[in-house]
Write a structure and sequence with these properties.
The complex is a heterodimer.
Chain A (H helix, E strand, L loop, with lengths): L25 H6 L10 E3 L4 E4 L4 E6 L2 E2 L7 E2 L3
Antiparallel strand pairs in A: 1-2, 2-3, 3-4, 3-5
Chain B lengths: L9 H11 L7 H16 L8 E4 L5 H7 L4 E5 L2 H6 L4 E3 L12 E7 L8 H10 L1 E12 L5 H15 L12 H10 L3 E14 L3 H9 L18 H7 L9 E13 L5
Parallel strand pairs in B: 1-2, 1-4, 2-3, 4-5
Antiparallel strand pairs in B: 5-7, 6-7
Helix pairs in contact in B: 6-9
Chain lengths: ~80, ~260
């Protein structure tokens, strides 16, 4: 059973303001698309979200794990 | 995507899996047994795989594939279950896959497709995410699984309250499986079945194991009323036992293989 934090957990910089964000695996960025529109996503590093402009949704990433569920996504401001 | 025609309540499936993420360790021996039977099929092929998707493997599939040197992405409907598989992993719905074309040359779905409402649709989405000549390897419980329990609960509930409520999932028939793959566009579809008999000294442990694995009832039309207190104890007591006093519970395991068609 693997540690959920992964091997590179030590490299996450400590931050006073925000909880430490674990970077999303680059292999995921290569293959993921929006589940609703099947269109490409944009990775927003600062907010740690995957943006689907076509669907107007931002999918959150928790502990390095993208949550690709429209129910859990944040609607983008119109 | 909730549709009143759907058989399964996907929100419930997700909650059950989320809750089971901390208990699934108790059923790892059963999951590993099935995983080994399924991954045995990889030994039959000389193909080398370089990009695998583990669909709902509950921690036992991704680790095996990565140990075999196959880079693997793990997916689950619940965050807790996805995290069990280690990185890279993601949360997604089998009915709404978030993968671009040519993403995988191997897809392994171990006991994870039987709570999907639109199985043909999920298989088509999987095939589209696969590279040409990629392999799909899936196991799922077939009609015949938990039959003893289904019969016992139905008879007991009829006696207790003069009616029944669906409490055990309707599983697909082996005969339908190969056709399902073919209709989804897979070539050389093969489906066969193996019977695995689980022996329980205490039949209540069967229910505990099903819950621990996240396999609680998620049928949309399930009764939301608490069942009569005597239902499950009485039903479990009526299950047939071996000479040693053990209850035999059958898992009729279907194993399906199909290949994504070659590039046009």
């Amino acid at each position: 059973m693997s540690d959920t934090k992964g091997e590179d957990a030590d490299e996450v910089p400590a931050s006073d303001a925000a909880p430490p964000q674990q970077a999303v695996d680059p292999r995921l960025l290569e293959i993921l698309v929006c589940p609703l529109t099947k269109q490409p996503l944009v990775y927003d590093r600062t907010r740690n979200e995957l943006i689907s402009r076509a669907a107007g949704l931002a999918y959150p990433i928790r502990g390095g794990i993208p949550i690709m569920l429209p129910d859990e996504a944040r609607p983008l401001d119109a | 995507m909730s549709d009143q025609a759907d058989i399964f309540d996907r929100g419930a499936v997700r909650r059950h899996r989320e809750r089971a993420a901390s208990t699934v360790g108790g059923v790892v021996p059963i999951l590993e047994d099935v995983a080994d039977r399924l991954l045995d099929r990889l030994a039959d092929t000389t193909r080398r795989f370089s990009a695998a998707l583990d669909l709902g493997g509950r921690g036992v599939i991704a680790s095996r594939l990565r140990a075999a040197g196959i880079p693997t992405v793990a997916m689950d409907l619940s965050l807790g279950m996805a995290a069990l598989s280690g990185a890279p992993s993601l949360v997604a719905d089998e009915e709404m896959l978030p993968f671009g074309p040519d993403s995988f040359d191997l897809v392994v779905a171990n006991l994870s497709l039987h709570w999907v409402n639109d199985l043909p649709g999920a298989l088509i989405q999987l095939r589209r995410a696969m590279k040409p000549e990629g392999l799909l390897l899936a196991s799922l419980p077939l009609l015949g699984t938990l039959d003893e329990l289904r019969r016992a609960v139905t008879e007991t509930e009829t006696e207790l309250r003069g009616g029944i409520s669906p409490r055990i999932s309707p599983f697909p028939d082996l005969r339908d499986c190969a056709g399902l793959l073919q209709r989804a566009g897979f070539t050389l579809p093969v489906a066969d079945a193996e019977d695995i008999d689980l022996l329980y000294a205490n039949p209540l442990a069967l229910l505990r194991d099903l819950q621990a694995a996240g396999e609680r009832n998620a049928i949309r039309e399930r009764s939301l009323f608490v069942p009569p207190r005597a239902l499950f104890p009485a039903a479990l007591m009526s299950l047939p036992v071996t000479a040693e006093g053990r209850v035999i519970i059958r898992l009729r395991l279907g194993i399906m293989t199909g290949w994504a068609p070659p590039a046009a």
